[in-house]
Predict the 3D structure of the following.
Amino acid sequence: MNRLIRHGVVPLCAAMMGVAPALAQGSIGNPSWVPYTRNGYVGLNVGKPEYNLPCSAGFSCDDPDASFHLYTGGNFNEWLGAEVGYLYLGKADRQGGTTRGHGLNLSLVGSVPVGQSFKVFGKVGTTWGRTTVSANPLSGEPTGDENGFGMSYGAGVQFDIGNAWALVAQWDRNRMKFAGRGREDIDTAGVGLKYKF
């Protein structure tokens, strides 16, 4: 995971931050990457996920060390917007094997300012997710790959740092399909950084 963040996510996010101002200047009529929105932004959140799955007696079930959410969004008006992003929900050592998930998320985001630099927000949408489960056969854990759409929602706070940057803290829940189990919850609490263009 550390290698993925160091060699994959960090350079990608840095490149997006560098390209965003140029794109914003070149698209005055639509300064967001999400259609029909304005006041665009890109962000990266890093968090601690929790897989809400049962665990068989005699087997250890740990949660992943870290996850990340790379996203972009924009506003329809001062209080409602839309956001699209990629979620990597980590790899957990469970039931003598591993469980991991990732997906693409699309959400509506409602926000309410609280003072000049602070706002609270909530989001609801859907995640197309894919999960992969391996396990010791003695655990009785269903194994294999599964994918599909599931509901997602979350809430958080944002603190603006000047006109271009913001710090965020948020909690999200994504309902993902797992082999032999149907949809289960993955909860993530994290912090992040947004660049507004």
